[in-house]
Amino acid sequence: MSRFIESIKVEDQRIFLAELHQKRMNETFFHFGKECKIDIQSLFLNLEHDEDGLYKFRIEYDLQNDFKTQIIPYAISEHDDFELVIDNEIDYIFKSADRTQFQKLKNDSGSDEIIIIKENQITDTSYSNLLFLKDKTWFTPKSYLLNGVMRQSLLASKKIKETEITIDNIKAFSHFQLINALNDFDEMFIYPIEKIINLPKEESDWEF
Taking a C-beta distance cutoff of 8 angstroms, is the pair 141, 153 a contact? Predict the structure, then answer.
């Protein structure tokens, strides 16, 4: 039976982007011809969470509206290096609890974190969307695997723009950062493009 997850930011007893998380959950049910009866705001209020600090509010659910919740302290990860990895078959349109393919790609990599290439397009890391900096403007790849809630929010507020980013033009960007529901846009927390250990020297370095 398919299971799905929502990982939601809670900071200083406030829940963030709940409407976008609820929308994604509703759309997941709708796609499979089901009706979502899980209300994120109600679940959060019922937790009676009264701790300050940064937390992950995790909801794991199935299409029968069975669910379990967890709220745990969260710390933003910092990575030493990144590797471009190719997977032309990967599919993660829905936020599935099954992350087997991501784990396999990470296990096969020699780096701290991976950046997944699908059909020559830059997509996501194993757990986040990406932003790339060029001439003081931040861009996100059109070719995401999962249209994350933070990505949607930043595009709607016009803090970032969407563009095609491929293995052929990635070196035109100077820096990048990782974003997801718990990792907000932060110009102080970025990586130089050289943190990617296998950037192509020439187009011929990559074969698809």
Answer: no
